[in-house]
Amino acid sequence: MTTPAAAGLSMPPEWAPHERTLMAWPCRRELWEGQLAAAKGESAGVANAVAAFEPVTMVAGTPADAAEARAACSAAVEILELPIDDSWLRDCGPIFVVDDHDAPTTRTGVHFGFNAWGDKFEGYAADQAIGGLLARHVGADVVEAPLILEGGSIAVDGAGVLLTTEQCLLNPNRNPQLGREQIEQHLQDHLGVTRVVWLGQGLLEDKDTDGHVDLIAAFTGPGTVLLQRAAPDNPNHDNMAANREIAVAAGLEVIDFDPLAYAVVAGETVVASYMNFYVGDRFVVVPIAGRPELDAEALAQIAAAFPGKEVVGVPGTVHAFGGGGPHCITQQVPALRA
Predict the structure, then answer these.
(1) What is the per-residue pLDDT across 129-186, written as a single tens digit (0 to 9) for each?
(2) Which residues 6+ apart lie within 8 Å of 97 measured at CB?
């Protein structure tokens, strides 16, 4: 079978123009522990923020969920009723590859395997299937990839570099039969990247996803990465410092990012990573933590890293309680040349 890379296809950077954004309405009660209604409110906030710039398709698993989503979201949000287990479409949705990052004419959806972050939740058959369904919904061909992979575990710079963490992709709860070189080959074959940079660890508090890179790093341009740093008295300090050394040694230009917020939700202290933002060609949607000074510092630093884009802050502490943020619940569909 011809791989996407062999066909000349590769994953464009997140800031390339989107045709639309894919999302899903929260519904897994055992995950949200009484915060489900609040999670739905935050998801509607993200959808409405993105819909001010581009169309949004919101998957809803039942007629009742579809009605709720329709009532909470703007008219620019399409509601699509399909089976879904929860709202983390970055991780279970399709990842698109195109023939030309600047003016694509061909778009294919790569459907990776999904096992609920190493079987951390029971009942994920709908999430396993949604990648292929959504790729076909937007008119893309589908390639099945022989690798369990969540979209939040990777970032690409559009110039051949893919960034990930050893903690996640080498975790035996994902692809125990594959070694590092085999995983790299699958990433190269199916996403069209030419080099994989392996950071070490994600945030210590990130227990659900085993160190997803989208809580600690984001490319801002080819070869340039915004990278989480932690204060000396923060338990993440040594791991984040080690990641910086790896990135610099790999030849990446590093922009240090210091703000790291914590919040209390349902009596639990959670890390609310500002780095879990979502980027479009004209916008950046950033989760805020209700800490005015820290929120303002984070928004200002992200705006400086993405000049010319409108930075929009949205409440994000409940999504953090669930294990993610705006990036985790969105998946971009690259726009094709008109």
Answers:
(1) 999 999 999 999 999 999 999 999 999 999 999 999 999 999 999 999 999 999 999 9
(2) 4, 9, 10, 11, 12, 107, 108, 110, 190, 191, 192
Asked, for residue 324, whether it belongs to a domain, the answer is yes
Instruction: Sort 85 into a burial class: Cβ within 10 Å, 0-12 / 13-18 / 19+.
Output: buried
Mapped onto helix, strand or coil, the DSSP state of residue 191 is: helix
Please state the domain count of the chain: 1
pTM given for the model: 0.97
36 assigned to some structural domain: yes
CB atoms < 10 A from the CB of 233, how many? 6
Provide the 8-state DSSP code for 10.
Answer: B
Task: Note if 328 is an active site residue.
Answer: yes
Range of the domain at 111: 18-334
Contact by Cβ (8 Å): 112, 145: yes
CATH number of residue 277's parent domain: 3.75.10.10
In which band, very low, low, confident or very high, does the pLDDT at 338 lie, cut at 50, 70 and 90? Answer: confident
Strands of 18-24's sheet in order across: 77-81, 56-60, 18-24, 331-334
Of 27, 92, 168, 328, the catalytic one is 328
Could you write out the DSSP letters of every residue in 113-146? E--HHHH-SS--HHHHHHHHHHHHHTT-EEEEEE
Closest CA to 241 of 251, 231, 250: 231
8 lies in some domain: no
Q: Examine residue 13 and state whether it is found in any structural domain, yes or no.
A: no
